[in-house]
Amino acid sequence: MLQIRNFRKAYGTFTVLSIDELAIKPGIFWIRGANGSGKSTLLKAAAGILDFDGEILLGGKISLKRNPVEYRRRVNFAEAEPVFPEFLTGKEMMHLFASAKHAPPQQQEYLIDSMRMHAYVNEPLSTYSSGMLKKLSLALAFLGSPEVILLDEPLITMDTASLQVLYRWIEEKHRDENVSFFLSSHQPLETVWTGALIVENQTVTSNA
Amino acid sequence: MDRRIDRGKSNRYIKRLMVSPLTRVLTKIFVKGFYRVHAGLLLFFFVTLLTYGFFINVLNETHLSPPDRILNNLILVLTLLSSPLMVIVVFVAWFFYTVKSWDYVLGQMTTPANAFLYYSSTAMPLRRQTGSWFVVQMLISMPMIVYALFSIVVGAVYHYYLVPVMIVLYIALLSGISAVLYVRLINRRIRSHKGSWLGRLVRGWDKPFFSLFLFAVMDKLKVAFVVTKLLSALAIIGGFHILTDVREDTRAAGMVILGMVVAHTLLLYQSYRFEHAALRFSLNFPYRKVRVYASWGLAYVLLTLPEILWLFTRFEAALASGLLLFHVGAGLLVRSMLYRTALDIKKFIYAVFYCFMLSFVAIVLKLLWPLVVITWASSWIIFQKYYYKQVP
After folding, report:
1. Contact assignment for A73 to B193 by CB distance below 8 Å
2. Are A65 and B387 in contact (CB under 8 A)?
3. Cβ contact, residue pair B194, A76, below 8 Å
4. Which of A80, A172, A186, B243 is deepest in the core (most CB within 10 A)?
5. Confidence (pTM)
6. Nearest CA in chain B to A45
7. Which of residues 175-194 of B touch A (CB under 8 A)?
8. Residues of B in contact with A79 (CB under 8 A)
9. Which site among B194, B211, B281 would you substitute to test the A interface, given the most A Cβ atoms closer than 10 Å to its Cβ?
10. Which of A68, A77, A86 lies at the smallest CB-CB distance from B388?
11. Contacts of A86 in chain B (CB under 8 A)
């Protein structure tokens, strides 16, 4: 499903990650690694947000670099600490992402309802707490018809009830639409996961 | 004796203030940051002042040798302060400079990275806080202080004593007011930012991707926008004033457009800063590069709509259309360069300066139309090469 070839990401002269060849089958993956090991770098690169040397392919033929639009239509991402324009409301962010990712209209309502965001979704983001912002960013990552969803530290700042909603979304998407997930976290996941990707010693290994 | 002890005490107080940990931290955050962000603007003013001083032609002036003329002009610039009207103009300009610095400092105060100041610096006595903030504002006002020192020297030589004293008092007053403002705000509990009145007015509007920076301007960049528009007006009026002998020439028009684009450099930098910080997620959007490029072009057109309307009232339609192409192409080139230089203001200023010089030469050589093609082509090439390679 996701193939990484001759991947190298360096900051200055320091190589953060180097992956010669890694093929990952569809599933739900837990990305593990110590602080600063390169988990976020891997996810941001796979989301097309961070530049890198090498190649990432989706389904063996859609290249992140050669087919940037097709790739980004199929891969969604939520940052660990989301930053959005403060003057926009949650609803406006949903509209922006929905139009970019070609999401059906009823999808937004379902996500807002199930994550119980109704009370504040029409307020500007400057009034949101970090937990509220996190819930919004996770909802945005589920918009459209992605094949892969990358979630960087999705468990942080979330309350228990919202975490259960997130796990339900993941399970539904994977079961009904065969969407693959990559979740980085220091805490164990409370959902069924296919395998783990271990990020250490500047590289990634899979135990799936 | 008592006076000497008092002076010793106040010297020790000033020394302690200058090296206090709070002053150091505030200087690192706010003073360095202010100059990093506004270096382009300050350089633009400095070059304008210097150009005016060196190259202004005094009507029918033939009796002075070139070095004397330069000296004469510099003294003229400096002794503008001898005219009451000019004193008012300069004081108003400094007031706007101070307001601009408030805009920057208050904006930076509320960023998450600086939120620690609300629960650390506030534990110090108010007098020490005010002293540190006063030093910060004085350092931010350094260009005014340098100008003041010049005028004191010129004032002493040419026996103008009142104005230099007024200048010193005015700078101290502005810095004092600023320090009190900063201390009051930082000691107040953080209030959630509910957006500006303009932001609230457009709450229900549809906000497509290309328009986001325009709303960001309404929300937090109003002062930068007003300063840019003043500079732009200055470029238009000043340009035609200086270029009297070629006023109806396309060269004059080209140079005025070039001045307009340079005046918008600060706003273009801010637009990249906004994209870099708050629209980072959009790199994951399945948008074609040409769409993103066109979006920023459209945003620039909307930001410079008053200037564009002026173009079409000042020149005939064909020439105005050509100038519009140059204006947008050059604006997009400046913006595209930011994908290469990122937020490194020094690199960015150098890049803008080289482009400005090359464009200036091309315009003088009557190569405006080839220049239009080159600006569009280079802006697109740089954009499409570096858009996905942005430095995090």
Report:
1. no
2. no
3. no
4. A80
5. 0.78
6. B284
7. 192-194
8. 280-281
9. B281
10. A68
11. 193, 195, 219, 278
As a whole number of angstroms, the distance between CA A203 and CA A201 comes to 6
Q: Count Cβ atoms within 10 A of the Cβ of residue B256 and give its class: 0-12 exposed, 13-18 middle, 19 or more buried.
A: buried
Burial of B276 (0-12, 13-18, 19+ CB in 10 A): middle
A10 touches chain B (CB under 8 A): no
Q: Give how far Cα B226 sits from Cα of A100, B191, B196, B217, Å.
A: 32, 26, 16, 10
Cβ–Cβ below 8 Å for A100 and B209? yes
Q: Do A126 and B193 touch (CB under 8 A)?
A: yes
Phi-psi region of B25 (alpha: psi -120 to 50; beta: other; left: phi over 0): alpha
Contacts of B284 in chain A (CB under 8 A): 47-49, 72, 75-77
Contacts of A65 in chain B (CB under 8 A): 388
Hey, is the C-beta of B103 within 8 angstroms of any chain A C-beta?
no
- Residues with Cβ within 8 Å of residue B276, at least 6 apart in sequence: B342, B343, B390
Beta-bridged to residue A199, according to DSSP, are A204
Whether chain B has a CB inside 8 Å of the CB on A146: the answer is no
User: If residue A6 lies in a helix (H) or strand (E), which one and from where to where?
Assistant: strand A2-11
Residue of B nearest to A49 (CA): B283
Spatial strand order of the sheet with A28-32 comes to: A75-78, A148-152, A180-184, A28-32, A195-200, A203-206
Q: How far apart are the first and last CA of chain B?
A: 60
Amino acid at B331: G
Q: What is the pLDDT along chain B (392 residues), one digit of tens a residue?
A: 555 556 666 666 666 666 688 999 999 999 998 988 787 777 767 766 666 555 555 444 455 565 665 566 556 555 555 677 777 878 888 898 898 899 889 888 888 788 888 888 888 889 999 999 999 999 999 988 887 887 778 777 777 777 778 888 999 999 999 999 999 998 886 665 556 677 777 777 889 999 999 999 998 888 889 889 988 998 888 877 776 665 667 888 899 999 999 999 989 999 999 999 999 999 999 999 999 999 999 999 999 999 999 999 988 899 999 999 999 999 999 999 999 999 888 889 889 989 999 999 999 899 999 999 999 999 999 999 999 998 87
- Residue in A49, A95, A96 nearest the CB of B284: A49
Please determine, for the modelled complex, whether the ipTM score is greater than 0.90: yes
The token duo for B381 is: 């090439």
Contacts of B83 (CB under 8 A, 6+ apart): none
Q: Which alpha helices (DSSP H) does A101-154 contain, by range?
A: 105-114, 130-141
